[in-house]
Prior knowledge:
Elements: E1 2-5, E2 12-15, H1 24-37, E3 39-42, H2 49-59, E4 80-83, E5 106-113, E6 121-125, H3 126-131, H4 135-141, E7 145-148, H5 151-161, E8 168-169, E9 172-173, E10 180-183, E11 185-187, E12 194-196, E13 203-206, H6 211-225, E14 231-234, E15 241-245, E16 249-253, E17 263-269
Parallel strand pairs: 2-3
Antiparallel strand pairs: 1-2, 3-15, 4-17, 5-15, 5-17, 6-14, 6-16, 7-10, 7-13, 8-9, 11-12
Amino acid sequence: xxxxxxxxxxxxxxxxxxxxxxxxxxxxxxxxxxxxxxxxxxxxxxxxxxxxxxxxxxxxxxxxxxxxxxxxxxxxxxxxxxxxxxxxxxxxxxxxxxxxxxxxxxxxxxxxxxxxxxxxxxxxxxxxxxxxxxxxxxxxxxxxxxxxxxxxxxxxxxxxxxxxxxxxxxxxxxxxxxxxxxxxxxxxxxxxxxxxxxxxxxxxxxxxxxxxxxxxxxxxxxxxxxxxxxxxxxxxxxxxxxxxxxxxxxxxxxxxxxxxxxxxxxxxxxxxxxxxxxx
Length: 279
């Protein structure tokens, strides 16, 4: 597979692959590159919702569109529509769906409607960020557990717009969003590399420390995770598709396009239970 690196360790633009016609070898290459480069961009693609779902099923097992938010339509329950005219923004740093016991392995996002300017998306490399922490801070945060709470973003939506009946996730219909604990530092199941696994979108606090200590530690990690040298930024064009490893990244969509419309369609790949340094 041919790709242009976007930084020494993180991100790549992939060339020469038509995502509507991927071979088994292409799928293997995409999976390997995904683990290595963490976020991949494919230009000038012609995917629709059916094609996006078909691609996702080649790469992994698909989840519902979201634990709480319904799919784009009845024929495509796996597709999550982020539409700026319906509050479909993602302008807080986050890792997808960390408020569930098994967050997605990865996500596949395609541009549907783009504003004339703006609407770029930024990804942060959580493993590079961990590696560049000082050893003393690495030792501290590797022992910690954090709480992730989906009610912060989706509790009202579940109660008011879905009448308390969300989608099926991990074999159960979501009727409430109980806070869930995950390790602050996650060990990648395929490489063994460590990465920061807290995010401003869904992490509420760190377990076993004071509120002041929790806020200070989280603020330190968020500031470090989103340093410019840990980030790649993508300027979307029609036909663009991004695939990223949700186990080792966080992302943020710029909300800088005023009243123009921005629509993105996302699917997610079923993941596993995050494991920390001590198992």
